[in-house]
Amino acid sequence: MLLRDRLAVAFYAISILLIAGFVLEITSSFTIPFVMALILYLLASPLIDRLERKRIPHWVAILMVGLLSAGVVTLLGLLAYSSVETLAQGLPRYQHRYQQILSFFTQFAKKYPMLKLEQIPSTLNLTDISSLLLSTIGSFMKFITGLTLMFLFFFFMLVGKGSLERKLEKIYRGRRAERIHRISKEVEEKVYKYLWTKTLISLITGFNTWLILLLFGVDFAFVWGFLTFVFNYIPNVGPIFITIPPLIIALLKFGKLLPVLALLILLALNHMVMGNFVEPRWMGKTLNLSPLLVLFSLIFWGWLWGVVGMLLSVPILSIIKIILESFSETEKIARLMEG
C-alpha cells in the first residue's frame, strides 16, 4: 500500500512538472520577461527600503530606483545584443585561416590514422555559424518588445510594493502578520545579497577576461569579456563554454599553439580563482545548493527557455530554496536541496 502511494505521488509530481513545463514553454514570451522582472524587483526592493530609511519619500525612491534599474538593464541588454551581432558579422573573415589549419590537421591525420583526426568536420562554414548566431538573438524589434514587457512588469511590481504589504497586514493581524513581514524581508535580503554578490564576481571575472585577451591581442576582447560576465551566471558549464570560443579565435589568428596554451592557462586561472576561492568566501552560506540539483535545474530551464533559461536557472533555484528555508513547514525540503 505504501509503495503504491509513493508511486502515485511520483506520478502526480512528474505529471505536474510536465504540464508546468508545457505551459511555461508556450507562454515563454510572457513568462521570461516576468521572471526577469521579478529578479530585478528583488534586486531593487531593498534599495528602496534603504532610501526610505534615509527619509526619502516612497514615490521618489521608487522613481529613482526604477529609472536607475531601467537604464542599467537597457545598457546591458544593448551590449549583449550588439556583442553577439558584432561577433556574428566578424566570424566569416576567419574562414580562410580555418581552412588552412584544417588542411594541416588533415595531413597530420593521414600520418597517424590511429588518432582518428579525420573525423574533424571539413565542411564547417563560419558563415553558417554567423547566421545561426543572428537567428538565435532574433530581430532587434523582438528584443525591444521583450525588454519593454519586462519593464512594464517591473514597474507594476515596484508600484504595488507598499500596497501589497498593507493588504497582508489587513489579512493577517498580530504575530502572524509580523512573521510574514519578517520572512518576506529575509527572503528579499538573502536574494539581494546572492544576486549582487554573483553580479560583482561575474563583473570582475569578465573584466579580467577582457584584460587578458586585450594583452594577447585577441580579436573581440570586449565581446568575450562581456559574454564571460553573462555566462558566469551559469554554474560549472558557463565558464567552460565561454572559454573555448576566444581560444579558437586566438588559434585562427596566431596559427600557433604556444600563445593559445598560455591564454588557456591564464583564463582557467581566472575562473578557478574567482569560482573556487573568491566566490565561496564572498557568498558564505548564501547558496549551498546540491551540484546534482543545479545540473538538473540547468538542463530543465535550458531545455525550456534556451540560453536565457540557463542564465536564470540558478537564480530561480536559489530563490525557491531561500523561500522554502524561511518557513518551518518547508525547511526540511530546503535542507534536501543543499550540497
Can you give me a brief rundown of this structure?
The chain is mainly α and 339 residues long.
What secondary-structure arrangement, pairings included, does this model have?
Blueprint: H1 2-26, H2 28-53, H3 58-90, H4 95-111, H5 126-137, H6 140-159, H7 161-171, H8 174-216, H9 221-231, H10 237-254, H11 257-283, H12 291-325, H13 331-336
Helix pairs in contact: 2-3, 2-6, 2-8, 2-12, 3-5, 3-6, 3-9, 7-8, 8-9, 8-11, 8-12, 9-10, 10-11
Distance between the termini: 32 Å
- Strand pairing plus helix content: what structural class? mainly alpha
- Number of DSSP-assigned strands: 0
Number of domain units:
2
Taking all Cα atoms into account, the compactness measure Rg is 24 Å
- Main β-sheet, in a few words? none
User: What percent of residues adopt helix (DSSP H or I)?
Assistant: over 70%
Low-confidence stretches: none
Mean pLDDT: 76
Query: Strand-residue fraction?
Result: under 5%
The backbone outline, from C-alpha atoms, is globular
Secondary-structure element pattern, one letter each: HHHHHHHHHHHHH
- Total helices: the number is 13
Describe this protein's structure.
The chain has 339 residues and is an all-alpha fold. The protein has two domains: 1-94 and 144-171, no CATH class; 175-339. The protein is 84% helix and 0% strand. The protein has 13 helices and no strands. The protein has helices at 2-26, 28-53, 58-90, 95-111, 126-137, 140-159, 161-171, 174-216, 221-231, 237-254, 257-283, 291-325, 331-336. The relative contact order is 0.09.
Supply the key terms.
2 domains; single chain; mainly alpha; 0% strand; 339 residues; 13 helices
